[in-house]
Amino acid sequence: DAGVIQSPRHEVTEMGQEVTLRCKPISGHNSLFWYRQTMMRGLELLIYFNNNVPIDDSGMPEDRFSAKMPNASFSTLKIQPSEPRDSAVYFCASRVGEGTEAFFGQGTRLTVV
Amino acid sequence: GESVGLHLPTLSVQEGDNSIINCAYSNSASDYFIWYKQESGKGPQFIIDIRSNMDKRQGQRVTVLLNKTVKHLSLQIAATQPGDSAVYFCAENIASGGSYIPTFGRGTSLIVHP
């Protein structure tokens, strides 16, 4: 298995533009997480899906952020409109079930100028 | 709120020495803990895990110790190598919405000098 696949690896966009980050979890994993990593705040959970259903989105900063998981093999995180303070590395992770480790993708480094 | 934290933000060691990275957690209900290694430009990578019914678990060159009395985790790396240089995170599974969410500490940067 190729692991969790995220795209793009790097994204530079102008303030106000829409940004869409993509994730393909490991096949057979039923849980998917989106995290954001910054120097100031570390790794923060944004949203958690179980069996494609959003379970906990309390970490989503504001209405500008939205996430979807239309099927077991694909998820998106969208920011509209983007702001400079959204600049961070965004990670997607998946796991096979409760009480098991989560596997992370390589991340998307987002820069909003 | 309860959180996972690390005592030492940076640890410098000589190649061949043993390294110990510490982590304090505050959620007494947590029953599963994971150590991750993150190299520059990469995502966190699983190293070892431990459940609350254990106090020690060993892997290849790594050992995790769990002290539930004082809510403390440690990761011991034997014969540290330059390739071990990375940021190390501990994570605990915290209950949320009927599920358990990996919640991360701030990380410790391990620097191994050749």
Features:
heterodimer, A: mainly beta, B: 114 residues, mainly beta, six-stranded mixed sheet, five-stranded antiparallel sheet, 11 strands, 58% strand
Write the layout of secondary structure elements.
The complex is a heterodimer of chains A (113) and B (114).
Chain A: E1 5-7, E2 10-13, E3 19-24, E4 31-38, E5 42-50, E6 53-56, E7 65-71, E8 74-79, E9 88-95, E10 103-104, E11 108-112
Chain B: E1 4-5, E2 10-14, E3 19-25, E4 32-38, E5 45-51, E6 56-58, E7 62-67, E8 72-77, E9 86-96, E10 99-104, E11 108-113
Parallel strand pairs in B: 2-11
Antiparallel strand pairs in B: 1-3, 3-8, 4-5, 4-9, 6-7, 7-8, 9-10, 9-11
Low-confidence runs of chain B? none
Structural class of chain B: mainly beta
User: H/E order of the elements of chain B?
Assistant: EEEEEEEEEEE
Give the DSSP E fraction of chain B (strand runs of 2 or more residues).
over 45%
Shape of chain A: globular
- Rg of chain B, alpha carbons: 14 Å
Q: How far is the N terminus from the C terminus of chain A?
A: 36 Å
Characterize the structure shown.
The complex is a heterodimer of chains A (about 110) and B (about 110). Chain A has about 110 residues and is mainly beta. Helices cover about 0% and strands about 55% of the residues of chain A. Chain A is built from no helices and eleven strands. In chain A, the strands form two sheets. In chain A, strands 2, 4, 5, 6, 9, 10 and 11 form a seven-stranded mixed beta sheet that branches. In chain A, strands 1-3-8-7 form a four-stranded antiparallel beta sheet, with no helix packed on it. Chain A is globular and about 35 Å long. The N and C termini of chain A lie far apart (about 35 Å). With about 110 residues, chain B is mainly β. Chain B contains no helices and eleven strands. In chain B, a hairpin with a 6-residue loop joins β4 (about 30-40) and β5 (about 45-50).
